[in-house]
Amino acid sequence: MTEKTFDTVSDPGMETPVIHVSPSPHLADQALTTQRIMLDVVIGLLPVVGMALYVFRLYAVKQLAICIVSCLAAEALFARMRGRALPLKDFSALVTGIILALSLPGPAPWYVGVIASFVAIGIGKAIFGGIGMNIFNPAMVGRAFVMIAFASALAASGYQDVNSSVDAVTQATPLDTFKQTGAVAPLSALFFGLTNGSLGETSALACLIGGIYLCIRRSASWEIPAGVITAAVVLGGITNLVDMDSGWTVLHHLFGGSLLFGAFFIATDPCSSPLTPRGKFIFGLGVGGFVMLLRLFSGYPAGVMFAVLLMNSLTPLINRWTIPRPLGAQ
User: What domains sit in the chain, N to C, each tagged with a CATH number?
Assistant: First the structure.
């Protein structure tokens, strides 16, 4: 675009056009700020949080409080260490805390949430330069660290009930039960969330409600969950055809574990996912494919965390492979 300026040196009354060249996009939605996107994510997570509070009660309250406070404290600490203003108003640390808490089992010890939060903010985000520059999903970086460091503390079974509406807290997760004994959980329990597991992975219905809201608001790219679900359906269908006697169907794969929670709330992190629509769908296919491979061939059936981190590492390559070719380019 051009704008008129006055050349006051050669001719004070002469107007000369000045051309400003800048990379695209030249038109942008000014309302789509980081703060608005993060608020949308918080709103989208409300059904998942509500279901976690209903099933796990005090366990959910404790884990959410620990992770949220720790993430906010870590964000403030690392910002001060770098001599920057407190970035708490963008709500990114709040979202990281909520997602991290929902990815942990409710009865996990308090120090697990604290350490995971500081690792998520410090190593997952601040070390790369802050929000928008991180390569990996911060919440999954913190989750992976404590998963390796405190594996026994994150075991899902063997906890005492806390007067919950169901005895979900005392049960093994449906995926672990199926792996160990071959017992198949009812689809209704997986869909509504009356099972054990991490706080945010139990209710497929809550994840769908919140995830669809994010896609409608365009705070999450629909191509990513579409790719995850497509890969899970295709590979789950092939598995069912190979072993038709198995009671674990495609719907069990979709509703069980944290596949939907990861597809809508973790894989869609705009900082660590590809930029182009085609790249986002490829990214989602990769996440869904890795999740299914880990479920079927590893001893760790809930593999969303590892799948997302693996695909995060491939995001720069996917961006290069899917760069749109300009009109007329060779």
Answer: 34-321 (1.10.3430)
Q: Please list, in sequence order, all residues whose beta carbon lies within 8 angstroms of the beta carbon of residue 137, skipping any fewer than 6 positions away.
A: 124, 266, 267, 269, 272, 308, 309, 312
Q: What is the pTM of this model?
A: 0.82
256 closest CA partner among 312, 172, 181, 327: 172
Q: What is the mean pLDDT of the chain?
A: 83
Of residues 95, 147, 98, 138, the one with CA closest to residue 118: 138
Where helices occur in the chain by DSSP H, the ranges are 34-56, 58-81, 92-102, 110-122, 138-149, 174-181, 187-192, 204-217, 223-242, 250-255, 259-261, 277-297, 304-321
Strand partners, 5: 16
Query: What is the distance between the terminal CA atoms of the chain, rounded to a whole angstrom?
Result: 26
What is the token pair recorded at 36? 């608005």
Kindly state the helix (H) or strand (E) to which residue 219 belongs, with its residue range. none
Per-residue pLDDT of 294-323, as tens digits, reads: 888 877 767 899 999 999 999 999 999 988
Q: Report whether 193 contacts 55 (CB < 8 A).
A: yes
DSSP H or E segment with residue 3:
strand 2-6
272 has which bridge partners?
none
